[in-house]
């Protein structure tokens, strides 16, 4: 598989993961406090960010970096609020 094909697959995954997360929250299947919602957002941001970086589209790349940072911070918050380490 060529690098370009792999990057496109990763980008499509990112788009589907992000949209899927949004759809599931909008229809009440998940909430913003579900791990799966945040994992989909994080992996979607990574996928889209990878594609944006490859195509040198830096404005959406920055948005996806921030999107991923938010997802990681919420996952950390969920872990600590569930008293996983206590």
Summarize this structure briefly.
The protein has 86 residues and is an all-alpha fold. Helix content is 79%, strand content 0%.
Attribute tags:
3 helices; 79% helix; 86 residues; 0% strand; mainly alpha
Task: Please give the structural blueprint.
Elements: H1 3-26, H2 35-54, H3 58-81
Helix pairs in contact: 1-2, 2-3
Q: What do these coordinates show?
A:
The chain is an all-alpha fold. The chain has one domain. Helix 1 packs antiparallel against helix 2 and helix 2 packs antiparallel against helix 3. The protein is globular and about 45 Å long. 21% of the residues are buried. The model has no long low-confidence stretch (mean pLDDT 95).
């Amino acid at each position: 598989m060529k690098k370009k094909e792999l990057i496109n697959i990763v980008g499509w995954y990112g788009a589907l993961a992000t949209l899927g997360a949004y759809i599931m929250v909008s229809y009440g299947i998940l909430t913003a406090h579900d791990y799966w919602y945040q994992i989909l957002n994080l992996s979607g941001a990574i996928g889209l960010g990878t594609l944006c970086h490859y195509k040198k589209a830096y404005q959406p790349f920055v948005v996806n970096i921030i999107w991923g940072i938010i997802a990681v911070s919420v996952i950390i918050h969920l872990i600590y609020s569930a008293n996983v380490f206590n």
